[in-house]
Amino acid sequence: MIKMVASLLLGSALTLAAPGAAAGPGGLKGRAIAGVEARTKLAQEINDSIFSFSELGFQEVETSRYLTDLLEKNGFTVERGTSGLPTGWVARWSHGSGGPVIALGSDIDGIPKASQKPGIPWREPMVEGAPGHGEGHNSGQAVNVVAALAVKDLMERENIAGTLVLWPGVAEELVSGKAFMVRDGVFKDVDEVIFTHVSNNLGTAWGAPSGTGLVSVEYTFAGESAHSAGAPWRGKSALDAVELMNVAWNMRREHLRAEQRSHYVITDGGDQPNVVPSRASVWYYFREQDFKGIARNFAIGNTIADAAAAMTDTKVTRRILGTAAPRHFNKPMAEAAYANIKAVGLPAWTDDEQAFARAVQKSVAAEKQEGLAKELDKFEPPLAEPKSGGSDDIGDVSWVVPTITIGYPSNIPELPGHNWSNAIAMATPIAHKGVVAGSKVVAMTVIDLLTKPKLRQAAKDYFANVQTKDQKYEPMLSATDTPPIDLNRETMARYKPELRKYYYDPARYPTYLDQLGIKFPTLEKPGAAPASD
């Protein structure tokens, strides 16, 4: 594989390297790969430990404590409580004077009601009703920490100047952390950002991907209580206002762009039927594909909320819970990363791993049940007209510093996403192999950025002269908005005592599956009829 790495990099249009950056056994990249492989066990322990904590956004207490302690033990200086986020932090390590500042980020929060035992292809929560890693955010920090430690060794040995910065995406499932960090200048001295996210393949992209940005806002209506049967005419129903707002928004959808996405949940509908609700709240996501579209739909939502309050003689206030800018990724950085992706390639999946992946796909009635990816994702230009879809607050970061996202193959294709089934593979050999593959790519790309001034300049030129030439960042947070750190607090307080019983102990068990007594691969539920050919 080392020879393959060297030949691919020599053939890349972005081989602007200083001597020694090649991936041969004596080159920096070859030694970075070796450094990652030497930390395979650490990667597994980080991945499995965070999986076992199963923490929701803003409540990633055990996860952040574990990671910051680990980084401090490895020489990083850690600032905690970043941007008013109790579980936020920034870890820094520098060598020499000058050199680029390269930041590595990945999300850390889980999904509500996604508790799931890993390594079994059927629904079986560890704690009924509890959260779990039903997207796979337990894995990204393992990718980054291992890559950073491998590069750190090389920077010290080869006297390479630069700074490594590690940080977590807090409450990404609430799209509610990164915009506060951007607003507060956390990235003001950063030259490039490499973000990592779990995937079922190894890939990256440039330009504007399919998807949306959004504003997340909760509207709270205040009315007057009364006896619902005895004197309803004396009440002013806040719930009526919520329902009127929702009806009006659903009517308005027909007259919005087809590309918009919007959703709501009633977070407070009153106390009990015989009391006219004096307070009620509804939480909206307004999604669109550009800054103007997001602002336009948010303004429409505000108008409808005000109208609902006027119709019910109630008062309305609103609280922004989070924002996410539309994403835009850096082309030169993505090109360099994809050269490294081709060099690393997909993991060599075993027959057992493929059989397990197909069993999981069968369990969720996936349309395709072909197992794990066998070919790399293609590196193609962005669509001329990107499709609508989900959001990620890495978008805010991408508008203030050259940024890419690298996806790594730690999960199974054809799963529904944000679902218990997406947790099944995330503490198995599939996740562990994907983490190591991703870590190699990240380490190699960091070396590119450290040793190739022309690449760094190309990234800056693209950011200044292409990405932000006609569109500048339009933040949606005000100076007075604060992170909604109360979210998920009660849920985690309810489930944490039971979840704590399942925390991974790497000193006693080689893997989390060993601790749970799960044999890999388990393909059928005990007592189930054997599958027919």
TrEMBL record:
Q: List where the protein spans the membrane.
A: none
BP-aspect Gene Ontology terms: folic acid catabolic process
Write down the Pfam families for this protein, in alphabetical order. Answer: M20_dimer
What InterPro entries does the database record attribute to this sequence? Amidohydrolase, Bact_exopeptidase_dim_dom, Peptidase_M20/M20A_hydrolases, Peptidase_M20_dimer
| Signal sequence annotation | 1-23
User: Which residue numbers delimit the Peptidase M20 dimerisation domain?
Assistant: 213-291
A GO molecular-function annotation: para-aminobenzoyl-glutamate hydrolase activity
Gene Ontology cellular-component terms for this entry are: cytoplasm
Q: Which Gene3D superfamilies match?
A: 3.30.70.360, Zn peptidases
Question: Is Hydrolase included in the keywords of this UniProt record?
Answer: yes
Q: Which UniProt keywords apply?
A: Hydrolase, Signal
NCBIfam families hit by this protein = amidohydrolases
What is the protein name stated in its UniProt record? Amidohydrolase
Q: Which organism is it from?
A: Allosphingosinicella deserti
